[in-house]
Amino acid sequence: MNGTVYSEEITMNPEAGKPSQLTELVRGSEGRFIDELTPVVRRQNVSLDLASVERIDAAGIAALISLYRIARESGHRFSLSKVSARVAEMLALVGLDGILLSRNAKMGSHSTARLVRHAA
């Protein structure tokens, strides 16, 4: 290996080869998502652009964790960039913001400074 680090920013794409704006990463869409991205995260570092995703649930979060684990086991990095405020809030609520968000993640149209945790 020559020491070169390859990295790619990938935009959400639910159907290979078709440009799209996936707006939800929820139960039912996570299987295809993992299937499409697993070969990529095994081969190289990936920064996943989630700008178009406004809704994520536990299945979507589990899919991101799976991809992170696969990348790490393959010796690569996996992070998220350009996340919406709502997705950033969900990742923060489950404690994954510090692990999955890239250091220079740009928030979508909202700022994370507006996120407030309310007592139950």
Supply the number of helical segments: 4
Shape descriptor reads globular
Architecture per CATH nomenclature, i.e. the level-2 architecture = 2-Layer Sandwich
Mean pLDDT: 76
How many strand units?
5
Helix content: 25-40%
Sheet with most strands: 3 strands, parallel
Structural class: alpha/beta
**What's the number of domains?**
1
CATH superfamily: STAS domain
Q: What's the CATH topology label?
A: Transcription Regulator spoIIAA
Specify the CATH class: Alpha Beta
Short structural description:
With 120 residues, this protein is an alpha/beta fold.
Describe this structure in words.
The chain is of the alpha/beta class and 120 residues long. It has a single domain (20-111), classed as Transcription Regulator spoIIAA. 36% of the residues lie in helices and 15% in strands. The protein is built from 4 helices and 5 strands. It has a 3-stranded parallel sheet. A two-stranded parallel ribbon has the order 2-4. Helix 1 packs parallel to helix 2 (58-73).
Annotate the secondary structure layout.
Blueprint: E1 7-11, E2 24-25, H1 30-43, E3 45-49, E4 55-56, H2 58-73, E5 78-81, H3 85-93, H4 97-100
Parallel strand pairs: 1-3, 2-4, 3-5
